[in-house]
Amino acid sequence: xxxxxxxxxxxxxxxxxxxxxxxxxxxxxxxxxxxxxxxxxxxxxxxxxxxxxxxxxxxxxxxxxxxxxxxxxxxxxxxxxxxxxxxxxxxxxxxxxxxxxxxxxxxxxxxxxxxxxxxxxxxxxxxxxxxxxxxxxxxxxxxxxxxxxxxxxxxxxxxxxxxxxxxxxxxxxxxxxxxxxxxxxxxxxxxxxxxxxxx
Length: 199
Description:
- With 199 residues, the protein is mainly alpha-helical.
- It has helices at residues 2-17, 21-32, 36-64, 66-93, 108-120, 123-137, 143-164, 175-198.
- The longest helix has 29 residues, at 36-64.
């Protein structure tokens, strides 16, 4: 059983570690200290639901209904393009820096709705969690243990990213550092959007 858990953890962690829209969003909020716990829980629980669905055999359903992936693809690409443009606009203005004392906190509902869109409107999420992890789990005698390991990796990753970001806060008191981050986030969003358009 431990072998299955470790295998699921290793594969899940390697898939989620790649820089993506969701990770960049969590990093930014972690740096600001805005709604970190609700956001990391949203990401990790979403992954848990999708991984559990994959282990339960729903990967076949996603493959059987390709229109679901198509809807997520175009909707996700459009959203990522707009969100990337917002980051470029913030970088162009260049007025943002991390001021913990005078910082204006974004509403929780706004942060959560963006987080949910970045998670559930990304077809790669379904391919990685439901199809890939679900399919590989079927090769293990204890598929649920493999799935549990993958779910654990998601919780470890998002909590580390969200709460570990505070270690970088001293760097982001500079407007220049924040402008660079906004440009990098914008480029990440547009690169993923372009990749979706070309799929």
